[in-house]
Every structure is written in structure tokens, then in C-alpha cells.
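Severity: low
Component: inverse-folding endpoint
Summary: output formatting inconsistent between runs
Steps to reproduce: submit the following C-alpha cells with default settings.
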């Protein structure tokens, strides 16, 4: 079980962790629980709560005892008994299920709308009846007072199938080209359907007439939203007699009051994905909307986010268990997720132990989801030598960095710096020793870092205490202030007196301190002779002070010039030393190995090749024409024809020379043989 928290709302993922295979013995299961922490923490709330490949829809019966889910592959429906916490039955179907509806309080009457235009009815014992609708269906709703099924899909008509008479009735003719979703109000049984044009049509089943039309596509577009195409309706849900929530294919949720054509609130998921499911939570006035990536819970009055969940796999459907805080999802994965949120409500009566479990976890908080992971930046990965893992499943991108397993982080850190633990241990021992020393009687000592600065601050404080009046408040000391404490403890903050900046600013700092001392002396004299001397008017300085300030400025300028001259001389000395070192160093020759079958000519060839590569294609063609390796001619059609002569390598040239020599030798042998034959013929004739 994993625990996560967002906006101080705790979410318990009951399906997290690995599932154990059925064929494992009890002994092996117990051994795995002892060794593996993930297996020990997992909670298997309902046994085998999963599908072979993908789950598409999930619903709860009205009595709350049965949970039904459909998925693939092969297409099937599974029914789970919550009282037994296990699977009750499984039935395979001929084609994939688009959606289904539980007509009875339990699992005895179920209707499935399948991909191949089939409508399949199941009873308690299994398959009961199968029929077909004229067009491909996308959604349907059941009208309880008249026992009619309303089917919408790839057609402008809404097909009606009466289950009492067992026949199709006259269909409803709409203005839409196609319809995606539909729903019937549970209070006054108003039938609403969402079209592909982004409109919602409302029909009265009693008179079979349209009573309202909402243009949701126009209302969903605001100043902040960015859309690429016309939004269509992808989700529809009634709440009570007057409220209706509409989800669009561009990721907006609109909440309507049926008495108004303008939406009360427009909520954007900011993912641009179609809204797949909308649920109402009446206890806290929340709307639970979900697309394929995230589930958001927000207040229906203000639109403020309550909390959100982002599962690992894409979401196909969301089901809220009635009158509880349990939430179930059908995903693009075999396992169906179960979440428990105590703030939404108590646990269902068939798993009431969850309340006690969550209370114990809150009293003894354990590690949350992110305690098992370490957040690292790209720079940290480069320092650890793990930059090649970016894009793999071991790193999960988040904000400006990545989350990685804490065990992998510790292993990589130990390999990158094997003595890190020893350094950490020494530092801790040193801190403990310093803490024990701090408890002893302390003498006034200067800090180890920035002693001169600390001495200067102490002297200034003492002088201020002498001149300060009793009624004035004590000013805070920099040495005792925690914000500046590190400046006198960490060696990284040591003032470098040999740096250029310090040497140029030091005359100014020293003059300022001298001025301060003079002013303090003047103030002491003024206090002693208040009755004898008269105060000068504000805003005017005495002649003595003006003359002193001018002398100080001249002296400071001269000192700055001296420091600059010294810096230039030091730079000259450093340059001369570097020049001497360069002269003393001897350059050693470097040897390069040439590949077999190649001959070294000169470095000019490579330079020529680089120059040729920088030239344009036209210039290179002209050079090839001059060398004779290229021939450009006009054709009869009017286009250009170019023929190239490939350059031969040294190996090919040697091979051709050897073949040529071999041919010449064979020719010579043939000539000598024919000459001998002719001589023999002549000799026989002579005899």
C-alpha cells in the first residue's frame, strides 16, 4: 500500500505492489513476505482484481455487493463478490464491449453494447438473448418508467428498444450527425445526449420531442483555452434534478443549471485530452472528472482543486463506490486500481478494517511514496555518472530534475565517492566535540574564520556602547545573529586579502573606519562641552570637516593608484615566469601509426581535402573537369549528363599492375610455345 498526499488530502493506493502468482505455495509466500518489503506492504483487497490485458469499464451494482468489470483479451466480463472478497464468475463474449449497464439490484440482469452493433442480454445463469441495432453504437441509457433502452452512436437517430414488448420502437430524429454519450435524469427522467458538434440535446421521453439545446462547444472556449478543432461532447452526467456536468474532447468540464443556457463554471484539465468520466460527490460538493492521464477532484461552486491523482497507466473509466471514500479505476493495464480517500467518506462495510488501518498509519506515520525516491538534477546525474539513464524507466522526470530509487542513488554515490561515509563520520564527530566544548565556560575568543572582521565588529560595538544613551535600545550584533553565523565558521567565506577587489577597496574601507573614529571623538568632545560651544545649523558642515574630507579623498586616490601599480608589476613578474617555464620545456616528438595498405605522402594532401570540402559543389565539379575525372555533356532531351571516373586506391593500382604483368608473361609464353612448334614442323619436313 502506498500513501501520497496532495493539498493535505491523504490518498491510499490499495492495489500498489506486486501480485503473487496463484501457484506459489503458502510456505514460499511467507518467505517472500519476510524478504521483500513491497510484498509485505501490499494489501490484496479483492482477490484477482485484474484483467488479462486491459480493463475498459467498471461499475457497482445498486445493492453494493457486486463489482463488475469488462476488458480484453479475450473480451470478457468479471463479477466480484465484495462479501467474499473474491471473483464470483467470469464470462467470455464474442466481441469487445463498448459499455454495459446493470439493470437489476444485483448481477441478474445485465445489458452489453458490443463493437459489432450487437446488444447482448445476460441473466443470472448466463447468456440470455442477442440482437442487433442498425448503426454502430457508442452509448445507451435505460429509462425505468417505460422499460426503454435508448441507443446513440454513428447516426442522427436515437434507437429505442422496449424490453417489455421485446421490439424496437420509433426512433428519435435529431439534428446531429453523430452522438457520443447520453444520460437520463434520475429525478424527472429527462433524456440528454451529447453530439459530435459540441451540443447537448434534451428530449422528453413522454412526448418524444426535443425540449432544449445547449451549445457547449461555444461556452467551453474562453480567453485562456487553446483549441485546435471543434470540441465534441465526450462525457455527460446528471446530478439531482437541476444540475448537469458536460465533458468535452478538448479537456474542459462545464457545469450547467438546466434553467440556464450559460454554464455555472468551466474547469479545464490543461492536458487537451478528452474527458472520459464525471462523478458527483455530494457530501463535500465535489466533482470527480477524469481524462486518460489524471483524476481531478474540485469544488463545484468555486472550482478550487481539492486533490488529484495521476496513475501510472492511462485511465479508461472511474467508478466511485456509493456513500464511501473508495474509488476504482479501469486502466490500460491488467491490474485495476483501488484508492481509499478517508476525507471523502468511510470505508465500505465489507472492508471496514481499512478505517482502523489508516488510523494506525496516521498515528505511526511511515514512509510516503517519495521517501523511497531521491530527487536529483541533471548535474547530479552527471556527477554520479548516471547521465546515460535519462529516458529509461529507472528515472521519472519531474519538474527540473528526476526521481530515482533511493537504493540506486546510494549505490552510485558509494561507487563515485567510496570515502564519503568516512568523511561524514569525521564531520559528525567534530560537531559533537564542538557541542560539548560549547557547554563549558567560554572565554572571549575570536572565531577561526575572518578574525580581523570580527575584531573590527567587536571594537565598533564597544565604541557604540560608550556613546549610546541609556534610553536607546541595544542594536543586534552581527556576531550573535544566526543569519551571519556561517560567515565566521565556514572557511568558504574567508575574505581573500590578496585578491584584486580587496586591495582596491581596502583604502576606502580603512578611510571610512578612520572617519568613524574621528566622528566618535568629536561627539565625545561635544557632549563634554555642550554649554560652551554652539551647535551648527543642520545641512552645513564646518570648514575643518570639509578640509579633512578633501584630504581624505586625495589620500585614498593615491593609495588606489599605488595598489594598481603593484598589481601590474605582479602580473609582469608572473608573465616572465611563465615565459621562462615555456622555454625550459622541451617538446617531445609524437609518432603516428599508418594503416596497412596506405602510404604517407604529406600533410598537404589532408589540407587540400579540407579546402575542397569547404568549396561549393560547382567549384568542385570544375576542378574535377580540369583533372579529367568528370565529363559533362548535353543530352538530346535538353538535360545534362555527368559521368565520373572513380579514383583508384593504392591497393587497386597494385592489383591492376600485377594482373597486367601476368597477362604479358602469358602472352610471352604463348609466343615461345608457338615458335617451338613451328621449328619442330620444319625439322620433320627437312628429314
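Observed output (run 2 of 3):
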Amino acid at each position: 500500500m502506498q500513501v501520497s498526499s496532495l493539498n493535505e488530502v491523504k490518498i491510499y493506493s490499495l492495489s500498489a505492489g506486486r501480485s503473487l502468482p496463484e501457484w506459489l505455495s503458502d510456505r514460499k509466500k511467507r518467505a517472500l513476505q519476510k524478504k521483500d518489503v513491497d510484498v509485505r506492504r501490499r494489501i490484496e483487497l479483492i482477490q484477482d482484481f485484474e484483467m488479462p490485458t486491459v480493463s475498459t469499464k467498471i461499475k457497482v451494482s445498486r445493492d453494493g455487493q457486486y463489482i463488475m468489470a469488462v476488458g480484453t483479451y479475450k473480451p470478457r466480463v468479471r463479477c466480484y463478490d465484495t462479501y467474499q472478497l473474491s471473483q464470483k464468475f467470469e464470462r467470455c463474449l464474442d466481441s469487445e464491449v463498448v459499455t454495459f449497464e446493470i439493470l437489476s439490484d444485483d448481477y441478474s440482469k445485465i445489458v452489453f453494447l458490443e463493437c459489432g452493433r450487437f446488444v447482448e442480454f445476460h441473466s443470472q445463469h448466463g447468456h440470455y438473448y442477442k440482437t442487433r441495432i442498425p448503426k454502430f453504437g457508442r452509448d445507451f441509457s435505460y429509462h425505468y418508467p417505460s422499460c426503454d433502452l435508448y441507443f446513440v452512436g454513428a447516426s442522427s437517430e436515437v434507437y429505442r428498444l422496449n424490453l417489455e414488448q421485446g421490439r424496437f420502437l420509433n426512433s428519435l430524429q435529431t439534428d446531429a450527425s453523430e452522438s457520443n454519450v447520453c444520460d437520463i435524469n434520475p429525478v424527472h427522467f429527462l433524456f440528454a445526449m451529447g453530439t459530435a458538434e459540441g451540443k447537448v440535446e434534451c428530449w422528453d421521453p413522454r412526448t418524444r420531442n426535443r425540449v432544449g439545446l445547449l451549445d457547449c462547444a461555444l461556452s467551453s472556449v474562453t480567453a485562456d483555452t487553446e483549441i485546435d478543432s471543434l470540441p465534441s461532447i465526450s462525457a455527460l452526467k446528471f446530478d439531482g434534478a437541476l444540475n448537469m456536468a458536460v465533458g468535452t474532447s478538448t479537456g474542459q468540464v462545464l457545469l450547467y443549471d438546466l434553467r440556464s443556457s450559460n454554464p455555472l463554471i468551466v474547469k479545464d484539465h490543461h492536458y487537451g485530452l478528452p474527458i472520459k468520466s464525471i462523478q458527483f460527490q455530494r457530501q463535500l460538493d465535489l466533482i470527480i472528472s477524469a481524462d486518460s492521464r489524471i483524476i481531478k477532484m474540485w469544488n463545484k461552486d468555486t472550482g478550487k482543486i481539492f486533490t488529484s491523482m495521476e496513475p501510472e497507466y492511462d485511465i479508461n473509466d472511474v467508478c466511485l463506490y456509493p456513500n464511501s471514500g473508495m474509488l476504482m479505476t479501469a486502466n490500460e493495464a491488467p491490474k485495476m486500481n483501488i484508492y481509499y480517500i478517508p476525507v471523502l467518506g468511510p470505508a465500505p462495510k465489507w472492508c471496514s478494517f481499512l478505517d482502523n488501518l489508516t488510523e494506525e498509519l496516521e498515528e505511526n506515520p511511515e514512509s510516503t511514496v517519495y521517501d523511497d525516491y531521491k530527487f536529483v538534477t541533471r548535474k547530479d546525474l552527471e556527477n554520479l555518472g548516471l547521465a546515460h539513464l535519462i529516458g529509461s524507466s529507472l528515472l521519472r522526470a519531474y519538474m527540473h530534475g528526476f526521481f530515482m530509487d533511493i537504493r540506486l542513488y546510494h549505490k552510485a554515490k558509494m561507487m563515485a565517492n567510496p570515502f564519503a561515509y568516512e568523511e561524514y563520520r569525521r564531520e559528525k564527530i567534530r560537531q559533537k566535540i564542538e557541542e560539548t566544548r560549547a557547554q563549558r565556560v567560554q572565554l572571549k575568543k575570536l572565531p577561526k574564520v575572518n578574525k580581523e572582521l570580527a575584531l573590527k565588529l567587536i571594537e565598533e560595538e564597544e565604541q557604540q556602547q560608550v556613546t549610546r544613551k541609556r534610553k536607546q535600545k541595544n542594536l543586534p550584533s552581527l556576531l550573535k545573529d544566526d543569519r551571519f553565523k556561517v560567515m565566521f565558521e565556514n572557511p568558504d567565506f574567508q575574505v581573500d586579502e590578496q585578491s584584486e577587489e580587496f586591495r582596491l577597496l581596502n583604502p576606502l574601507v580603512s578611510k571610512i573606519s578612520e572617519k568613524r573614529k574621528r566622528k566618535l571623538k568629536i561627539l565625545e568632545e561635544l557632549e563634554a562641552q555642550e554649554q560652551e560651544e554652539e551647535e551648527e545649523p543642520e545641512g552645513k558642515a564646518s570648514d575643518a570637516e570639509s578640509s579633512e574630507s578633501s584630504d581624505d579623498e586625495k589620500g585614498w586616490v593615491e593609495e588606489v593608484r599605488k595598489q594598481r601599480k603593484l598589481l601590474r608589476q605582479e602580473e609582469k613578474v608572473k608573465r616572465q615566469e611563465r615565459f621562462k617555464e615555456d622555454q625550459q620545456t622541451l617538446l617531445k616528438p609524437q609518432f603516428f601509426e599508418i594503416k596497412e595498405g596506405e602510404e604517407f605522402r604529406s600533410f598537404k594532401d589532408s589540407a587540400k581535402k579540407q579546402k575542397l570540402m569547404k568549396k561549393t559543389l560547382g567549384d568542385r565539379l570544375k576542378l574535377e573537369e580540369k583533372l579529367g575525372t568528370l565529363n559533362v555533356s548535353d543530352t538530346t532531351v535538353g538535360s545534362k549528363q555527368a559521368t565520373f571516373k572513380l579514383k583508384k586506391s593504392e591497393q587497386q593500382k597494385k592489383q591492376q599492375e600485377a594482373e597486367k604483368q601476368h597477362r604479358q608473361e602469358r602472352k610471352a609464353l604463348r609466343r615461345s610455345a608457338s615458335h617451338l612448334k613451328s621449328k619442330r614442323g620444319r625439322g620433320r619436313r627437312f628429314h
